[in-house]
TrEMBL record:
Keywords: Cell membrane, Membrane, Transmembrane, Transmembrane helix, Transport
Organism of this sequence: Rhizobium halophytocola
Name of the protein: Glucose/mannose transport system permease protein
Residue intervals passing through the bilayer: 21-46, 79-101, 113-133, 162-187, 208-233, 272-292
Pfam families documented for this protein: BPD_transp_1
Amino acid sequence: MTDRAPARRPNQLFRNLNAKIASIPMILTALVIFLGGTVWTIVYSFTNSKLLPRMKWVGIDQYERLWAAPRWIISIENLAIFGILSLIFSMVIGFVLAALMDQKIRFENTFRTIFLYPFALSFIVTGLVWQWILNPDFGVQSVVRSLGWASFTFNPLYTSSIVIYGILIAALWQGTGLVLCLMLAGLRGIDEDIWKAARVDGIPMWKTYLFVVIPMMRPVFITTLVIIASGIVKVYDLVVAQTSGGPGIASEVPAKYVYDYMFQAQNLGQGFAASTMMLITVSIIIIPWAYLEFGGKKRG
């Protein structure tokens, strides 16, 4: 037996050799472009790069300027409001719709397609559509006033204090369908015997969902949470299409801040510093998810 064991190890190395060879370009791309670009961005965030990158070290000056800029602070506040509300509402609405859809209703495929259709649109298209819908001259406000409510006011995209909520409405309209499909797939994976046992024991349906079904769907919730959160951090198209950051800078977000400083203000150092902070935010989301998904499995 001891003579055969070493002979098997080389065979393990050459198993699925074609697949391993085919994956080499993607591995090199990930290492050189993604990892290399990330390191390059972090390094140059400590320089005074303007129109072109240059190795003139300034330490953490770019980060001090970043956190002293009112525009960046507003973008972080907007991202926090948009992110928290988007996570809560998309998860709750998506799960409730999935629970209703799981009742074997008629025309389920039609409803699922209708709910998922907005996700197929680009954020630019979604932003423009909702810009028209929320426009006070010919959108919701105009329609309601034409019905007799002359004092009705609903123009979130033109009011600084609530503009981020107007963007949130468009984001929920587009992203909730994906959450619905993910949750519905998780519900369909629940064993039918569990539902039968709950009905036999006389457990109310809401308690079955709350104390049995939702804990069993933990991996689905975590995956959905990561997908939504990663999209929230890099939100850009929706803001540009709806408000371009206005009124004033009331709807600024970090991704737009990075783009403006790198390509319009021609201040690469400041743009690199802001993008590095965004990278840290994404890492805060991804690392706990990876630990929960893979670390727990290894311990098990």
